[in-house]
Design goal:
Keywords: 4Fe-4S, Electron transport, Iron, Iron-sulfur, Membrane, Metal-binding, Transmembrane, Transmembrane helix, Transport
Number of helices: 16
Protein name: Cytochrome c oxidase accessory protein FixG
Structural class: alpha+beta
Helix content: 40-55%
Strand content: 15-25%
Pfam family, one: Fer4_18
Distance between the termini: 102 Å
InterPro entries: 4Fe4S_Fe-S-bd, 4Fe4S_Fe_S_CS, Cyt_c_oxidase_cbb3_FixG, Electron_Trans/Redox, FixG_C, Helical_ferredxn, Ig-like_fold
Shape: elongated
Number of strands: 14
GO molecular function, one term: 4 iron, 4 sulfur cluster binding
Order of helices and strands: HEEEHHHHHHHHHEHHHEHHHEEEEEEEEE
Radius of gyration: 33 Å
Length: 477
């Protein structure tokens, strides 16, 4: 029986830092390639130029919040076209479902920003402090001598610079990169830019340098919902315990012939960035980065055993493999009704977005009747309604637009401030103009009547047209 005066046991254990060992292999090389490509895209993209003419920004990818526009190379998204962004988000979600159902948490293991930046921070840490054993010794060293202080400060400075570059690259997506860089250096940038950079710098520094696996385990919701995307056909990193057990290190001792292929070298544990033992079975913490596969394959090669003790495998193959049969081909796991459905939905959304992009008009108009007053009786007895007509010109140069109406031959249109029906609309701009519609006395509708008609706008340069239906309100004489 425990002493009633003793303190209760703690429900929480302090974090023990994880120091993954360096490993070589196909999956590690793939992670290096993905890290270089993704970081290269992130840091370089704001500096790419794209000529759109003299009146538009020449930055290839720009989120122009001031003018409420998104530029992506030759594509320009306006505020009312947010459905394109929504479609891309739907495609991203379906893509995540597709890859998860086929290959488990492959996104987490290879392309997630937390994984990519953590890999980069661990690489810096290894360069400065050494591989796993050297970092462990430095961590366990109680004395803060000059060498430990120097190594730690050097590492933290490099981490901070990476975080600063991360925050800096992010703000460059929202303004002209060269101009903003000059403003940042000279202290003339908007405070929002400095605040955003500071937040992203500190979060990158903390998440990639200190939190690491804890972000994946505690902060990210995806480990908790990935099970809904996976089934027994999903290929995920696993341990063939029927081949590896029972474990044993001494291969020349008595009874060694009864041992499995696993020599309990802990190589798979030492290289794991999450600090788990894949031999304990499927775990929420596993991000399927496959570094344990590289480590195990290397050991198997050294002891003359076939690779694949730890590998991408499907639970549905386990009974057959235990019985000595070969696993089914990978393509049979990947191409199955569930993944085909996700691929079909993903493709349909993509095709729909491309189709909508090519058929969207270059000119648009919206019409809003002025309600106060609903109509005005002029001195000659005719009735006039007023409308706010908003014209959108998506071309890169000013265009002359003509406004007309159809539906009632007795109605005539007049633009405020001019006797003409044409107006010059600036390039890549929305232009608001008051338009009057007048009905002569003899044809003015009764107070309870509403005459429907259609506004038309025509681009006199190329003949493109757009229309909008509305009503004319009047009263009896």
């Amino acid at each position: 029986m425990s002493d009633s005066n003793s303190p209760p046991p703690s429900l929480y254990a302090s974090r023990e830092p994880i120091f993954p060992k360096r490993v070589k292999g196909n999956f590690r090389n793939l992670k290096w390639i993905i890290m270089i490509v993704t970081l290269g895209i992130y840091y370089i993209t704001p500096w790419l130029r794209w000529d759109r003419g003299p009146q538009l920004p020449d930055q290839a990818v720009l989120i122009d919040l001031a003018n409420r526009r998104f530029f992506f190379f030759w594509i320009e998204i306006w505020p009312h076209e947010f459905y394109f962004v929504a479609g891309l988000l739907i495609m991203a979600g379906l893509g995540l479902f597709l890859f998860t159902s086929a290959l488990g948490r492959v996104w987490c293991g290879y392309a997630c920003p937390q994984t990519v930046w953590t890999d980069l921070f661990i690489l810096v840490e290894r360069w400065i402090e050494g591989d796993r054993n050297a970092r462990l010794r430095l961590h366990r060293q109680k004395k803060m001598d000059f060498r430990k202080i120097r190594l730690r400060l050097t590492k933290w400075v490099v981490w901070f610079l990476i975080g600063l570059a991360t925050g800096g690259a992010w703000v460059f997506y929202f303004a002209d990169a060269p101009s903003l860089l000059m403003d940042l250096v000279t202290g003339q940038a908007h405070p929002a830019a400095y605040i955003t950079m500071l937040i992203l710098t500190l979060t990158t520094f903390f998440f990639g340098g200190f939190a690491r696996e804890q972000i994946c385990i505690y902060a990210c919701p995806w480990p908790r919902i990935q099970a809904a995307m996976m089934d027994e056909e999903t290929l995920t990193v696993g341990y063939r315990d029927w081949r590896g057990e029972p474990r044993g290190k001494h291969r020349k001792s008595e009874g060694a012939e009864n041992l499995g292929d696993c020599i309990d070298c802990m190589a798979c544990v030492n290289v794991c960035p999450m600090g788990i033992d894949i031999r304990d079975g499927q775990q929420m913490e596993c991000i399927t980065c496959a570094l344990c596969i590289d480590a195990c394959d290397d050991v198997m090669a050294k002891i003359g055993k076939p690779r694949g003790l730890i590998d991408y495998l499907a639970f549905s193959d386990e009974p057959g493999e235990r019985a000595g049969n070969d696993p089914r081909p990978v393509w049979k796991h990947v191409f199955r009704p569930r993944t085909i459905m996700y691929t079909t939905l993903w493709s349909l959304v993509g095709v729909g977005l491309v189709f909508a992009l090519f058929i969207r008009p270059e000119i648009e108009m919206t019409v809003a009747p002025v309600r106060n007053p609903t109509f005005v009786t002029l001195s000659d007895g005719s009735i006039r309604n007023t409308y706010d007509v908003r014209l959108l010109n998506k071309h890169g140069e000013d265009r002359p637009f003509r406004i007309t109406l159809t539906g009632d031959p007795t109605l005539r249109v007049q633009l405020e401030g001019t006797p003409y029906e044409t107006v010059d609309v600036p390039a890549n701009a929305t232009y608001l103009r008051k338009v009057y519609v007048i009905a002569p006395t003899s044809s003015a509708p009764a107070a309870s009547e509403r005459t429907e008609f259609r506004f038309w706008v025509e681009d006199l340069t190329n003949g493109d047209r757009a229309h909008n239906d509305t009503f004319f309100n009047g009263r009896a004489n």
